[in-house]
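>> received
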Amino acid sequence: MRVDVLVAEIGSTTTVVNAFDGLEAEPRFIAQGAAPTSVLEGDVTIGLSGAIADLQRNLEAGELEWGAMYASSSAAGGLKMTVHGLVYDMTVRAAKEAALGAGAVLRYLTAGDLTDHDLESIKRIGPNIILLAGGVDYGERATVVANARRLASLGPLAPVIYAGNVAARHEAEAILADAGYRVFAVENVYPRIDELNIEPTRRVIQRVFEEHIIHAPGMDKIRELVTGTITPTPGAVMSAARLLKEDIGDLMVLDVGGATTDVHSVTEGSDEISRLLVSPEPTAKRTVEGDLGVFINARNIAELVGWEQLEEAVPGGRDLFDQLKPIPDTPGLVELVVYLTGVAVETAVRRHAGRLKHLYGPTGRVTVAEGKDLSKVRWIIGTGGALTRLPGGREIMERLKRPQRGGELFPGADAQVLLDHDYILASLGVLGANHPAAAVALIRKSLRLEG
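>> returned
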């Protein structure tokens, strides 16, 4: 049997391979195969081969051939980054948005001068990429230059992306290059007050990630098998969301996993709220809640709501925690994980969304908006196993639709809920780089959107 494309998603625990055909005429999702990721065995190709073998069994195909293979990866801990800027609410936040939008796992953020403690933390983390920003163009330059010198004192830990004040670019670049760093200079992420410019940085982050992902055991062999780049898996979900937004309008995507809950939103928000914003927000925004997961971080969620409240919602739930596993397989465990998923979604969206605030001064009360405005979101999309493979996913997301309760800028009552039934959104974000029309058609099928 021959198919057009395989898309491999190499996760930290599981490797999934999806097969697609008819991309130039009538795009079809053929089947999926999965196997444990084999980082600990020293060669991720073992897991990839197992997933392809599982795909062949599911297709009942003796031999399987494909025209091209694309891939995304979060193996070896995903894309670890540290971000360093000048003022937290300005350049640091802009750099953070760029990194998260590219699919990074942010391990450390600093504002202002790097301290000895900061340097020790960076060295201990061992990031894949360091993002250095600071200062609007032709503004303050001393801090970003001083931070370049401090990073240089550590020796070449990882590639550095410089996305700060253009007036300090050459000096900072020379300091780091002389210390042996590989430096990528891009446009400033915060070139002027109240202006974000994160796309150039986001694109370079993904390119640098693809060049350095080969450090995962056996990833160099996978690189030989793959056509094109290897994308960070969270970045692939964002790519799919951005692609779909152009087709169906403003949306948000929720992905609840065992360790984190990710929220992606692609919306400009309302004109009314934009006039009240105290600082700009990107059209495409991603937040990662590292304390909200329904397996590895399940106890964090329980402690967040309180054990008594959990017991009221799921009688006997506390006693089930020692039996939790990545895929719940008893009615009691399913009930517990569904409850934890609901709490994770509600909490993650509340952290992602903006809100209205009332400030009081000499002229009286003034209303301002802070954070991401979700009020114009038309579609709430669920992906990941917890929302698509367990009962109650649709009902959990329906609860997010509400007017501005307490000033929260959540989706309105007219938003519609959709599920990624085939669980292929990340793969379609990868596919969309080469076959955008086919990717949109396949996303619509998985979401059960007609027309």
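>> The chain has a mean pLDDT of 90.
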